[in-house]
Structures are given as structure tokens and as C-alpha cells.
Amino acid sequence: MDSWVNRRTRTLRHRARRWITGAPGTYLWLAALFVTAVAVHHMSPEFEDEFLRQRSTNIHELTSKPVRVLISSAFWLDGGGWLPYAALYTLFHAPAEHWLGTRRWLGVVAAAHVLATLISQSVLAWAIRHGHAPAGAANTLDVGVSYALAGVVGVLVYRLAPPWRWLYLAVVLVVYATPLLSSVTFTDIGHFTALLIGLGCYPLTRGRPGGPWDPAAWLRTKSGGRLTSRPRP
User: Fold this and answer.
1) For residue 227, is pLDDT > 90?
2) Which residues of 37-59 are buried (b: 16+ CB within 10 A; e: fewer)?
3) Are 60 and 138 in contact (CB under 8 A)?
4) How many CB atoms lie within 10 A of CB 163?
5) pLDDT attached to residue 233
6) pLDDT surpasses 60 at 229
7) Distance (Å, rounded) from C-alpha 160 to C-alpha 168?
8) pTM, rounded to two decimals
9) Are 201 and 107 contacting, i.e. CB atoms less than 8 angstroms apart?
């Protein structure tokens, strides 16, 4: 029994190591977020607010130092813990990086983060000019990694084989479109825009090895072919 447990433990460690090293961008980014999350935890509330605001992709900061805040905002989390992001990165970012390769994955991440930020803040600027939002919204706090995540969620549609692809697409459209039906915020617009950008990254998915992933076929393989349908009597 002990030898079986040891073999199983070594196998799991080997698979975990391969999974992490096969997605270096995902886990280096996650490690950086862990460091910044710890740093924020040790800040006073007043200092934290001002510190993050200077790294925020709001209208004020984008106007004065756009490149700096577009990069720095992707390394700080506004509220919430780090562990949920570790789960989401493992569930979405890592599979996308394994599939697309680091450069193409990074292209999706950058496009979603940058374009969704610029579009959502442009909508907010329009709302301020026309009196639909207060002038103070130009200096709102806007940091985080959710736009990049939404873009990767979108591009993963092409990873799945039909009919799973259409089911997954329907679910993510409901998740990201539902907030737009109530009190719309610029972040809701940004998330939905990032999802559409991810869907628009289809050209980056062409020629990837292995073809679309069929969960049912994968389960049959893992079960040694035992998950087969029986003929009707």
C-alpha cells in the first residue's frame, strides 16, 4: 500500500510540475500577483487607495501616463483574495497557454486587457461629457486582471469540439451579458468587450496541434474505453 501511495504521489507531482512548467507565463504572472497581494495586505487603507489609484487605468491616469498604468494595473488586485485567482488562472489561463503557446496566449491577454480598458474608459468619458456619470468618475479606481481573464475565456471557445463549444459559448455569454441588462457600469462593458475580443482572436488558434478537445472522448480514453453507449434493446 505504501509503495502504491508513493508511486501515486510521485506521478501527481510530476504531472503538476509539467502543467506548471508548460504554462510559464500564467504561473509567473500568478506569482507576481501573490507578491503584490501580500504587499497590499500590509498597507493602511488610506495608503492602499492612493497607491492603487496611481496605478489605475482610469481616465485621469490614462491621459497622463497610459503605457505605465496599462502595464502596472495588470499586476495588482483590487479587493478579494489571491486564491480565487489561482484557481481561475489554473482553470482558464493555463489551458489556453498550453494550447496556444506562450506568445499567442500573451497576445490574447494583451489585446483583451488593453483594448477593453481603452474602450470601457472611452464609454465612461462619453458618459461624463453628456452628464450620465459624475466628473469624479474620471479618477475612479480601475486595476486588476479580469479583462485579460475574460479574453482568455472567450478564446477558449475554439478549444472545444462541438457540441461542447456551443454550450460553453452560451454559458459565458450569459455570464458576461447579464450584468448589461441591469445597472451597467464601465467594468461590465469592459468585461463583455474583452470577451468579444477573445472571440475575435480566432486567427491565433489556427494550426494548433491536437485539434478541438472533446471532453466525452477524453473521458472514454481515461476510463479505458468503458464509457461506451449500449445498444437499445
Assistant:
1) no
2) beebeeeeeeebeebbbebbbbb
3) yes
4) 10
5) 31
6) no
7) 8
8) 0.89
9) yes
